[in-house]
Write a structure and sequence with these properties.
The protein is mostly beta strands. It contains no helices and 16 strands. It is 0% helix and 44% strand. The chain has a 16-stranded antiparallel sheet with strand order 1-2-3-4-5-6-7-8-9-10-11-12-13-14-15-16, with no helix packed on it.
Length: 320
């Protein structure tokens, strides 16, 4: 994520600090309740301590963004709500000017992420909900991407398994509401891409392909079984193999094939957590806008990639 605009630093910007109306201490520092119009046009209404924003306050950016919450020595710290110019919103915990801890992010397209954050990125346990379809991913995130045990829940079925770098990989199963489940595993397969023009060099991309196994009655899901994702893939494919080598029944749609990757907040989302656009600000360009994430969150696009279209190949399951 890039930081595109943060609170004006009233201490480091030179002698002129803009207009101020409020309480001061014996050293004539801004101290207590006060209102300030900063030199860059931003406005702050809240508590000061020894010349710094410290405590509860409301900060309005000239681009329309605003933050309502706690400050610690000029930095967002504690509980707070940030509303971005693109309409996205983060409500939750902040540490040292970054989304960190538990919080809820609502993207411009209506998708939401509720869970743990670390250094502005989705990290830990969390639930991502796609507004258009109601599909949910419930599971582990690492640095803005799905990684570890997770469950993708659709209207009438769900996928339970492991993820690596935002892609399903290793053993898993599809559980259907009709009372059965299909076991199998996702195997990374190299697929050719481009190279139609003689001048173009053909490239290969790695996509997850579903290798179907047995069908059985529904059993209890144990996330611990998916803890060592990637180590469960016991079928090695030659570099030249493609989905054709997996068999007709095994050539299921890959998780996420054809799904759009809108981005978070202007991005956590490549958030699909590309990066949540508008997620964060920097002091160098105060008031200019928010951060462009992703790792997972792409500014202004909003949303996370909905991977895992199941073997039923339902087109309606696309995220955007």
């Amino acid at each position: 994520m890039s930081d595109l605009g943060s609170d004006y630093d009233e201490e480091e910007q030179g002698p002129y600090l803009g207009e101020y109306e409020g309480e001061r201490n014996e050293k004539e520092e801004r101290h207590g309740k006060g209102k300030a119009t900063l030199p860059n046009g931003d406005m702050y209404d809240g508590i000061y301590e020894h010349g710094k924003r410290h405590g509860q306050g409301l900060y309005k950016f000239k681009n329309g963004a605003r933050y309502i919450g706690e400050y610690k020595y000029n930095k967002k710290h504690g509980q707070g709500t940030f509303i971005y110019p693109d309409g996205s919103k983060y409500e939750g915990n902040w540490v040292d000017d970054q989304r960190h801890g538990y919080g809820v992010y609502t993207y411009p397209n209506g998708d939401t992420y509720e869970g743990e954050w670390q250094s502005h990125l989705r990290h830990g346990q969390g639930v991502y909900t796609y507004k258009d379809t109601g599909t949910k991913y419930v599971g582990t995130w690492v640095s803005g991407k799905r990684d570890g045990a997770g469950e993708l829940i659709h209207a009438n079925h769900r996928y339970q398994g492991g993820w690596i770098a935002d892609q399903p990989q290793g053993k898993g199963k599809y559980v259907f509401d009709i009372g059965c489940e299909q076991h199998g595993q996702y195997i990374p397969v190299e697929m050719p891409q481009g190279g139609e023009d003689d001048a173009e060099e053909a490239q290969t991309i790695v996509v997850p392909k579903w290798r179907a196994g047995e069908i059985s009655a529904i059993s209890q899901y144990n996330p611990a079984e998916d803890g060592n994702v990637g180590q469960d893939v016991d079928i090695e494919l030659e570099s030249g193999d493609t989905a054709e080598g997996l068999g007709e029944d095994e050539e299921m749609q890959q998780e996420g094939s054809g799904d759009a990757v809108p981005g978070e907040g202007g991005a956590e989302g490549q958030d699909g957590e590309t990066a949540p656009a508008a997620e964060g600000e920097t002091e160098a360009t105060a008031g200019e806008g928010e951060e462009n994430q992703e790792g997972g969150e792409d500014a202004g696009d909003g949303g996370e990639e909905q991977t895992a279209a199941s073997p039923t190949a339902e087109d309606a399951e696309e995220a955007d």
